[in-house]
Protein backbone atom coordinates (compact mmCIF):
# COMPACT_ATOMS: atom_id res chain seq x y z
CA UNK A 1 0.00 0.00 0.00
CA UNK A 2 1.61 3.28 -1.12
CA UNK A 3 1.52 6.66 0.56
CA UNK A 4 -1.71 7.76 -1.14
CA UNK A 5 -3.49 4.54 -0.17
CA UNK A 6 -2.37 4.92 3.44
CA UNK A 7 -3.53 8.55 3.52
CA UNK A 8 -7.02 7.70 2.25
CA UNK A 9 -7.28 4.52 4.32
CA UNK A 10 -6.34 6.25 7.58
CA UNK A 11 -8.60 9.24 6.89
CA UNK A 12 -11.61 7.04 6.19
CA UNK A 13 -10.81 4.62 9.02
CA UNK A 14 -10.70 7.20 11.80
CA UNK A 15 -13.79 9.00 10.51
CA UNK A 16 -15.68 5.71 10.30
CA UNK A 17 -14.64 4.74 13.84
CA UNK A 18 -15.97 8.06 15.10
CA UNK A 19 -19.23 7.68 13.16
CA UNK A 20 -19.77 4.09 14.30
CA UNK A 21 -19.10 5.15 17.89
CA UNK A 22 -21.62 7.99 17.59
CA UNK A 23 -24.39 5.83 16.16
CA UNK A 24 -23.67 3.01 18.63
CA UNK A 25 -23.90 5.51 21.50
CA UNK A 26 -27.28 6.75 20.25
CA UNK A 27 -28.69 3.21 19.94
CA UNK A 28 -27.30 2.16 23.33
CA UNK A 29 -28.58 5.35 24.97
CA UNK A 30 -32.12 4.69 23.74
CA UNK A 31 -32.03 1.18 25.23
CA UNK A 32 -30.52 2.49 28.47
CA UNK A 33 -33.28 5.06 28.94
CA UNK A 34 -35.99 2.52 28.08
CA UNK A 35 -34.76 -0.45 30.15
CA UNK A 36 -32.20 0.61 32.76
CA UNK A 37 -32.81 4.17 33.88
CA UNK A 38 -36.00 3.41 35.82
CA UNK A 39 -34.61 0.39 37.72
CA UNK A 40 -31.39 2.31 38.43
CA UNK A 41 -33.23 5.30 39.93
CA UNK A 42 -35.49 2.95 41.91
CA UNK A 43 -32.45 1.17 43.36
CA UNK A 44 -33.35 -2.13 41.72
CA UNK A 45 -29.92 -2.46 40.08
CA UNK A 46 -26.53 -1.21 41.26
CA UNK A 47 -24.24 1.19 39.40
CA UNK A 48 -21.76 -1.62 38.75
CA UNK A 49 -24.48 -3.81 37.25
CA UNK A 50 -25.68 -0.88 35.15
CA UNK A 51 -22.18 -0.43 33.67
CA UNK A 52 -21.98 -4.16 32.95
CA UNK A 53 -25.36 -4.09 31.18
CA UNK A 54 -24.42 -1.01 29.15
CA UNK A 55 -21.29 -2.80 27.92
CA UNK A 56 -23.47 -5.74 26.88
CA UNK A 57 -25.67 -3.33 24.92
CA UNK A 58 -22.85 -2.21 22.63
CA UNK A 59 -22.54 -5.34 20.42
CA UNK A 60 -26.25 -4.97 19.68
CA UNK A 61 -25.77 -1.25 18.98
CA UNK A 62 -22.71 -1.87 16.81
CA UNK A 63 -24.62 -4.35 14.63
CA UNK A 64 -26.81 -1.45 13.48
CA UNK A 65 -24.17 1.27 13.73
CA UNK A 66 -21.58 -0.39 11.46
CA UNK A 67 -23.40 0.14 8.13
CA UNK A 68 -24.45 3.67 9.10
CA UNK A 69 -20.99 4.52 10.39
CA UNK A 70 -19.19 3.27 7.27
CA UNK A 71 -21.58 5.20 5.03
CA UNK A 72 -21.20 8.40 7.04
CA UNK A 73 -17.43 8.08 7.37
CA UNK A 74 -16.89 7.57 3.64
CA UNK A 75 -19.23 10.44 2.75
CA UNK A 76 -17.51 12.80 5.17
CA UNK A 77 -13.96 11.89 4.14
CA UNK A 78 -14.39 11.79 0.36
CA UNK A 79 -16.66 14.82 0.44
CA UNK A 80 -13.92 16.76 2.22
CA UNK A 81 -11.18 15.47 -0.11
CA UNK A 82 -13.29 16.41 -3.14
CA UNK A 83 -14.15 19.85 -1.74
CA UNK A 84 -10.44 20.50 -1.12
CA UNK A 85 -9.73 19.53 -4.79
CA UNK A 86 -7.52 16.65 -3.64
CA UNK A 87 -9.57 14.23 -5.76
CA UNK A 88 -9.17 16.58 -8.75
CA UNK A 89 -5.40 16.57 -8.24
CA UNK A 90 -5.35 12.77 -8.08
CA UNK A 91 -7.34 12.47 -11.30
CA UNK A 92 -5.11 15.05 -12.99
CA UNK A 93 -2.22 12.72 -12.15
CA UNK A 94 -3.98 9.96 -14.09
CA UNK A 95 -5.44 8.05 -11.12
CA UNK A 96 -8.93 6.66 -11.76
CA UNK A 97 -11.81 6.89 -9.33
CA UNK A 98 -11.76 3.14 -8.79
CA UNK A 99 -8.05 3.29 -7.92
CA UNK A 100 -8.67 6.21 -5.54
CA UNK A 101 -11.46 4.25 -3.88
CA UNK A 102 -9.46 1.02 -3.49
CA UNK A 103 -8.52 1.69 0.19
CA UNK A 104 -12.19 2.45 0.89
CA UNK A 105 -13.32 -0.84 -0.62
CA UNK A 106 -10.66 -2.72 1.35
CA UNK A 107 -11.86 -1.06 4.56
CA UNK A 108 -15.49 -1.81 3.66
CA UNK A 109 -14.67 -5.48 3.03
CA UNK A 110 -12.95 -5.70 6.42
CA UNK A 111 -15.95 -3.97 7.99
CA UNK A 112 -18.29 -6.48 6.33
CA UNK A 113 -16.30 -9.40 7.77
CA UNK A 114 -16.38 -7.76 11.21
CA UNK A 115 -20.14 -7.23 10.83
CA UNK A 116 -20.61 -10.93 10.05
CA UNK A 117 -18.91 -11.86 13.33
CA UNK A 118 -20.86 -9.25 15.28
CA UNK A 119 -24.25 -10.18 13.79
CA UNK A 120 -23.89 -13.96 14.05
CA UNK A 121 -21.74 -14.34 17.18
CA UNK A 122 -21.06 -11.30 19.38
CA UNK A 123 -24.48 -9.66 19.25
CA UNK A 124 -26.53 -12.84 19.97
CA UNK A 125 -24.24 -13.76 22.87
CA UNK A 126 -24.44 -10.24 24.30
CA UNK A 127 -28.25 -10.09 23.99
CA UNK A 128 -28.67 -13.36 25.85
CA UNK A 129 -26.23 -12.27 28.57
CA UNK A 130 -27.90 -8.86 28.84
CA UNK A 131 -31.40 -10.23 29.43
CA UNK A 132 -30.22 -13.02 31.71
CA UNK A 133 -28.14 -10.72 33.93
CA UNK A 134 -30.77 -7.97 33.93
CA UNK A 135 -33.51 -10.36 35.05
CA UNK A 136 -31.22 -11.98 37.63
CA UNK A 137 -30.26 -8.58 39.07
CA UNK A 138 -33.92 -7.69 39.49
CA UNK A 139 -34.77 -11.05 41.05
CA UNK A 140 -32.01 -10.58 43.65
CA UNK A 141 -33.82 -7.49 44.94
CA UNK A 142 -37.50 -8.08 44.12
CA UNK A 143 -38.64 -5.99 47.07
CA UNK A 144 -37.11 -2.92 45.45
CA UNK A 145 -40.03 -2.90 43.05
CA UNK A 146 -41.98 -1.27 45.88
CA UNK A 147 -41.01 2.41 45.83
CA UNK A 148 -42.64 4.64 48.50
CA UNK A 149 -44.96 7.46 47.47
CA UNK A 150 -45.22 6.08 43.92
CA UNK A 151 -48.11 4.52 42.07
CA UNK A 152 -46.58 1.22 40.92
CA UNK A 153 -48.12 -0.20 37.75
CA UNK A 154 -45.49 -2.85 36.95
CA UNK A 155 -47.73 -5.68 38.17
CA UNK A 156 -50.34 -7.05 35.79
CA UNK A 157 -53.87 -6.19 36.89
CA UNK A 158 -52.75 -4.44 40.07
CA UNK A 159 -51.78 -0.90 41.10
CA UNK A 160 -49.86 -0.50 44.36
CA UNK A 161 -49.13 2.57 46.48
CA UNK A 162 -47.02 2.57 49.66
CA UNK A 163 -46.78 5.63 51.86
CA UNK A 164 -43.54 4.71 53.64
CA UNK A 165 -40.91 1.98 53.73
CA UNK A 166 -38.60 2.65 56.72
CA UNK A 167 -34.92 2.04 55.95
CA UNK A 168 -35.89 0.29 52.68
CA UNK A 169 -36.67 -2.82 54.69
CA UNK A 170 -39.50 -5.32 54.50
CA UNK A 171 -41.86 -3.23 56.67
CA UNK A 172 -44.41 -1.08 54.79
CA UNK A 173 -46.79 1.59 56.07
CA UNK A 174 -49.99 3.03 54.58
CA UNK A 175 -50.52 0.45 51.84
CA UNK A 176 -53.07 0.79 49.02
CA UNK A 177 -53.75 -1.96 46.47
CA UNK A 178 -56.19 -1.65 43.59
CA UNK A 179 -57.07 -4.88 41.76
CA UNK A 180 -58.20 -4.17 38.19
CA UNK A 181 -60.33 -6.03 35.70
CA UNK A 182 -59.55 -6.48 31.99
CA UNK A 183 -60.82 -2.96 31.28
CA UNK A 184 -58.64 -1.36 33.94
CA UNK A 185 -61.49 -0.77 36.43
CA UNK A 186 -60.89 -1.28 40.16
CA UNK A 187 -63.16 -4.01 41.52
CA UNK A 188 -61.25 -4.54 44.77
CA UNK A 189 -59.51 -1.92 46.89
CA UNK A 190 -57.34 -2.87 49.84
CA UNK A 191 -55.96 -0.41 52.36
CA UNK A 192 -53.75 -1.50 55.23
CA UNK A 193 -52.07 0.31 58.08
CA UNK A 194 -48.89 -1.73 57.71
CA UNK A 195 -47.46 -4.89 56.17
CA UNK A 196 -44.35 -6.75 55.13
CA UNK A 197 -43.00 -8.19 51.87
CA UNK A 198 -41.96 -11.75 51.04
CA UNK A 199 -40.67 -13.12 47.73
CA UNK A 200 -41.82 -16.50 46.46
CA UNK A 201 -39.24 -17.72 43.93
CA UNK A 202 -41.41 -20.70 42.92
CA UNK A 203 -44.15 -18.44 41.54
CA UNK A 204 -41.90 -15.42 40.84
CA UNK A 205 -44.20 -13.26 42.96
CA UNK A 206 -44.04 -10.71 45.75
CA UNK A 207 -46.45 -11.56 48.57
CA UNK A 208 -47.48 -8.63 50.80
CA UNK A 209 -48.76 -9.64 54.23
CA UNK A 210 -51.10 -6.86 55.38
CA UNK A 211 -52.05 -5.92 58.94
CA UNK A 212 -55.17 -4.04 60.08
CA UNK A 213 -56.50 -3.94 56.54
CA UNK A 214 -59.83 -2.84 55.11
CA UNK A 215 -61.05 -4.42 51.88
CA UNK A 216 -63.63 -2.77 49.63
CA UNK A 217 -65.11 -5.19 47.10
CA UNK A 218 -67.28 -4.05 44.18
CA UNK A 219 -69.36 -5.95 41.68
CA UNK A 220 -66.80 -7.60 39.37
CA UNK A 221 -69.16 -7.42 36.39
CA UNK A 222 -69.82 -3.71 36.84
CA UNK A 223 -67.43 -2.18 39.36
CA UNK A 224 -68.50 1.36 38.41
CA UNK A 225 -72.07 0.78 39.53
CA UNK A 226 -72.12 2.80 42.76
CA UNK A 227 -75.83 2.16 43.34
CA UNK A 228 -74.83 -1.04 45.11
CA UNK A 229 -73.09 -0.68 48.44
CA UNK A 230 -69.63 -2.25 48.28
CA UNK A 231 -68.55 -4.85 50.79
CA UNK A 232 -65.98 -3.35 53.13
CA UNK A 233 -64.91 -5.82 55.80
CA UNK A 234 -62.00 -5.12 58.11
CA UNK A 235 -59.46 -7.87 58.66
CA UNK A 236 -56.54 -8.15 61.03
CA UNK A 237 -54.23 -9.98 58.63
CA UNK A 238 -54.35 -10.65 54.87
CA UNK A 239 -51.95 -12.87 52.91
CA UNK A 240 -53.86 -13.92 49.80
CA UNK A 241 -52.62 -11.14 47.49
CA UNK A 242 -49.77 -12.02 45.10
CA UNK A 243 -47.94 -9.49 42.93
CA UNK A 244 -46.53 -11.40 39.97
CA UNK A 245 -43.24 -10.21 38.48
CA UNK A 246 -43.83 -12.23 35.31
CA UNK A 247 -44.87 -9.21 33.25
CA UNK A 248 -41.76 -7.30 34.26
CA UNK A 249 -38.88 -9.76 34.45
CA UNK A 250 -40.39 -12.83 32.84
CA UNK A 251 -41.89 -15.99 34.24
CA UNK A 252 -38.70 -17.23 35.85
CA UNK A 253 -37.72 -19.30 32.80
CA UNK A 254 -35.42 -17.57 30.33
CA UNK A 255 -36.63 -17.79 26.74
CA UNK A 256 -34.06 -17.25 23.99
CA UNK A 257 -35.57 -15.60 20.93
CA UNK A 258 -34.54 -17.04 17.55
CA UNK A 259 -32.70 -13.83 16.61
CA UNK A 260 -30.55 -14.23 19.73
CA UNK A 261 -29.16 -17.57 18.58
CA UNK A 262 -25.62 -17.83 17.29
CA UNK A 263 -25.04 -19.01 13.76
CA UNK A 264 -24.46 -22.68 14.62
CA UNK A 265 -27.46 -22.85 16.94
CA UNK A 266 -29.60 -21.02 14.41
CA UNK A 267 -28.68 -23.47 11.65
CA UNK A 268 -29.30 -26.44 13.94
CA UNK A 269 -32.73 -25.15 14.90
CA UNK A 270 -33.56 -24.48 11.27
CA UNK A 271 -32.49 -28.00 10.29
CA UNK A 272 -34.54 -29.46 13.14
CA UNK A 273 -37.64 -27.54 12.04
CA UNK A 274 -37.19 -28.59 8.40
CA UNK A 275 -36.73 -32.22 9.44
CA UNK A 276 -39.92 -32.23 11.52
CA UNK A 277 -43.07 -33.34 9.75
CA UNK A 278 -45.88 -30.85 10.47
CA UNK A 279 -49.05 -32.08 12.13
CA UNK A 280 -52.18 -32.15 9.97
CA UNK A 281 -53.69 -28.67 9.82
CA UNK A 282 -50.49 -26.95 10.98
CA UNK A 283 -48.62 -26.92 7.67
CA UNK A 284 -48.82 -23.13 7.28
CA UNK A 285 -47.54 -22.50 10.80
CA UNK A 286 -44.66 -24.92 10.22
CA UNK A 287 -43.75 -23.21 6.93
CA UNK A 288 -43.94 -19.81 8.61
CA UNK A 289 -41.57 -20.91 11.41
CA UNK A 290 -39.08 -22.30 8.90
CA UNK A 291 -39.25 -19.09 6.87
CA UNK A 292 -38.80 -16.98 10.01
CA UNK A 293 -35.49 -18.72 10.75
CA UNK A 294 -34.37 -18.38 7.13
CA UNK A 295 -35.22 -14.66 7.21
CA UNK A 296 -33.16 -14.15 10.38
CA UNK A 297 -30.11 -15.63 8.64
CA UNK A 298 -30.75 -13.52 5.54
CA UNK A 299 -31.25 -10.34 7.55
CA UNK A 300 -28.03 -10.76 9.51
CA UNK A 301 -26.08 -11.54 6.34
CA UNK A 302 -27.64 -8.56 4.57
CA UNK A 303 -26.73 -6.17 7.39
CA UNK A 304 -23.14 -7.35 6.93
CA UNK A 305 -23.24 -6.93 3.15
CA UNK A 306 -24.79 -3.49 3.69
CA UNK A 307 -21.44 -2.30 5.07
CA UNK A 308 -19.87 -2.83 1.63
CA UNK A 309 -22.97 -1.74 -0.31
CA UNK A 310 -23.18 1.55 1.59
CA UNK A 311 -19.48 2.22 0.99
CA UNK A 312 -19.97 1.44 -2.69
CA UNK A 313 -22.67 4.12 -2.87
CA UNK A 314 -20.83 6.59 -0.63
CA UNK A 315 -17.65 6.70 -2.78
CA UNK A 316 -19.15 8.28 -5.92
CA UNK A 317 -21.77 10.18 -3.94
CA UNK A 318 -19.17 11.78 -1.65
CA UNK A 319 -16.99 12.77 -4.62
CA UNK A 320 -19.94 14.08 -6.64
CA UNK A 321 -21.53 16.09 -3.82
CA UNK A 322 -18.19 17.58 -2.73
CA UNK A 323 -19.38 18.94 0.62
CA UNK A 324 -17.25 19.85 3.60
CA UNK A 325 -20.32 20.38 5.82
CA UNK A 326 -20.72 17.57 8.33
CA UNK A 327 -24.44 18.18 8.80
CA UNK A 328 -25.18 17.92 5.06
CA UNK A 329 -23.30 14.63 4.72
CA UNK A 330 -24.96 13.27 7.84
CA UNK A 331 -28.33 14.19 6.33
CA UNK A 332 -27.53 12.32 3.11
CA UNK A 333 -26.37 9.30 5.12
CA UNK A 334 -29.52 9.25 7.25
CA UNK A 335 -31.77 9.43 4.18
CA UNK A 336 -29.96 6.52 2.50
CA UNK A 337 -30.05 4.40 5.66
CA UNK A 338 -33.71 5.23 6.20
CA UNK A 339 -34.53 4.10 2.67
CA UNK A 340 -32.59 0.86 3.18
CA UNK A 341 -34.36 -0.03 6.44
CA UNK A 342 -37.78 0.85 4.99
CA UNK A 343 -37.14 -1.68 2.22
CA UNK A 344 -35.97 -4.29 4.75
CA UNK A 345 -39.08 -3.69 6.88
CA UNK A 346 -41.36 -4.04 3.86
CA UNK A 347 -39.82 -7.41 3.08
CA UNK A 348 -40.17 -8.54 6.72
CA UNK A 349 -43.92 -7.91 6.49
CA UNK A 350 -44.05 -10.93 4.17
CA UNK A 351 -42.95 -13.35 6.91
CA UNK A 352 -46.42 -14.92 6.96
CA UNK A 353 -46.30 -15.54 3.22
CA UNK A 354 -43.39 -17.97 2.71
CA UNK A 355 -44.58 -18.63 -0.84
CA UNK A 356 -43.19 -15.20 -1.82
CA UNK A 357 -39.70 -16.23 -0.53
CA UNK A 358 -39.05 -13.17 1.65
CA UNK A 359 -35.72 -14.71 2.65
CA UNK A 360 -34.54 -14.15 -0.93
CA UNK A 361 -36.30 -10.79 -1.29
CA UNK A 362 -34.24 -9.66 1.71
CA UNK A 363 -31.29 -9.37 -0.68
CA UNK A 364 -33.08 -6.90 -2.96
CA UNK A 365 -32.25 -3.70 -0.96
CA UNK A 366 -28.51 -4.48 -1.11
CA UNK A 367 -28.72 -5.28 -4.82
CA UNK A 368 -30.46 -1.94 -5.38
CA UNK A 369 -27.75 -0.09 -3.48
CA UNK A 370 -24.96 -1.93 -5.29
CA UNK A 371 -26.58 -1.18 -8.65
CA UNK A 372 -27.10 2.45 -7.71
CA UNK A 373 -23.49 2.71 -6.57
CA UNK A 374 -22.19 1.13 -9.78
CA UNK A 375 -24.25 3.58 -11.88
CA UNK A 376 -22.99 6.57 -9.86
CA UNK A 377 -19.40 5.32 -10.08
CA UNK A 378 -19.59 5.15 -13.89
CA UNK A 379 -21.07 8.65 -14.07
CA UNK A 380 -18.36 10.11 -11.84
CA UNK A 381 -15.64 8.28 -13.76
CA UNK A 382 -16.87 9.81 -16.98
Global morphology: elongated
**How many helices?**
11
Beta-strand residue percentage: 5-15%
SSE series: HHHHHEEEEEEHHHHHH
Amino- and carboxy-terminal Cα gap:
26 Å
Oligomer: single chain
**Strand runs, count:** 6
Q: Give the biggest beta sheet.
A: 6 strands, antiparallel
Helix content: 55-70%
What class would the helix/strand composition place it in?
alpha+beta
- When the domains are counted, the total is 2
Average pLDDT works out at: 81
Describe it:
This protein has 382 residues and is an alpha+beta fold. The chain has two domains: 3-140 and 266-381, no CATH class; 155-244, no CATH class. Helices cover 59% and strands 14% of the residues. The protein has eleven helices and six strands. It has helices spanning 3-41, 47-83, 86-92, 97-100, 102-140, 246-249, 263-275, 283-321, 326-348, 358-361, 364-381, and strands spanning 158-164, 171-180, 186-200, 205-217, 234-238, 243-244. Strands 1, 2, 3, 4, 5 and 6 form a six-stranded antiparallel sheet that branches. A hairpin with a 4-residue loop joins β3 (186-200) and β4. α1 (3-41) packs antiparallel against α2 and α8 (283-321) runs parallel beside α11. The radius of gyration is 28 Å and the shape is elongated.
